[in-house]
UniProtKB/TrEMBL annotation:
Domain NAD(P)-binding, chain residue ranges per copy: 7-201
Domain of life, per lineage: Bacteria
Identification of the protein by name: NADH-flavin reductase
UniProt xrefs under PANTHER family: FLAVIN REDUCTASE (NADPH) (PTHR43355:SF2)
GO MF entry, a single one: riboflavin reductase (NADPH) activity
A Pfam family the protein falls into: NAD_binding_10
Record organism: Actinorhabdospora filicis
Top-level taxonomy: Bacteria, Bacillati, Actinomycetota, Actinomycetes, Micromonosporales
InterPro entries: NAD(P)-bd_dom (IPR016040), NAD(P)-bd_dom_sf (IPR036291), Polyketide_Oxido-like (IPR051606)
Length: 214
């Protein structure tokens, strides 16, 4: 597949790039700093681009004509005030995809920003309320961006990981259904990337949000 990756220099995005290349995908990374993208291969194309600019994204997507777009964008904590990076990015990307006919979109979200039916009492009444206070600005941005994605007719999948760990790829993680996932506490960044690539061809994930955890 030919994949456009946003957020390719971040913790999850770097794993998406390296794993996608290893799997034989063609990767086009749209980034602010091309020198920060890991790896080198004939199937890696790194382009400097403002992913908040709808016109820039439209032109890039029209030229690239990818099979899918993966957004691994994220806001690095601590965030001390309101932010809109994810909302602005989706506000630019969604119309760019629609105008160029690109339908498949996978987006990294955050499990902590949402209450799920599968949450146990400790998670629902202790852990998540605490997280929502500590990370409220980032979570506000996450929910607003997700709402934009969910309102589209694109073939989207929203992936909601819990606390992210910098540990090696295991491929041993759990995927929740429409009601979330019990005891969703941690996930390795490399495994989030693995699931994003796995979900590319899973039609059952279209227009669905999925919680993943180890």
């Amino acid at each position: 597949m030919r994949l456009v990756v946003l957020g390719a220099t971040g913790g999850i995005g770097r794993h998406v790039v390296t794993q996608a290349l290893a799997a034989g995908h063609e990767v086009i990374a749209l980034v602010r700093d091309p020198s920060a993208v890991p790896g080198s291969a004939d199937t890696l194309d790194v382009r400097k681009a403002d992913v908040l600019d709808q016109g820039v994204l439209t032109a890039e997507l029209a030229e690239i004509n990818p099979d899918a777009v993966i957004s691994a964008l994220g806001v690095r904590p601590p965030v001390k005030g309101p932010v809109s990076l994810l909302t602005d990015a989706m506000g630019a990307l969604i119309p760019a995809m629609r105008s160029t006919g690109i339908r498949r979109l996978l987006v990294v979200s955050a499990a902590g920003a949402y209450d799920e039916e599968a949450d146990g009492p400790v998670t629902r009444y202790v852990a998540k309320p605490l997280l929502k206070r500590l990370l409220r600005y980032g979570f506000d941005d996450t929910r607003a961006a997700d709402a934009l994605v969910e309102a589209t007719d694109l073939d989207w999948t929203i992936v909601r990981p819990p606390r992210l760990l910098d540990k090696p790829l295991t491929t041993r993680y759990r995927v929740g259904g429409d009601h979330g996932l019990k005891k969703a506490l941690n996930i390795h960044r490399a495994d989030v990337a693995h699931y994003l690539l796995r979900a590319l061809g899973e039609r059952g994930t279209h227009r669905r949000a999925r919680v993943i955890a180890i």
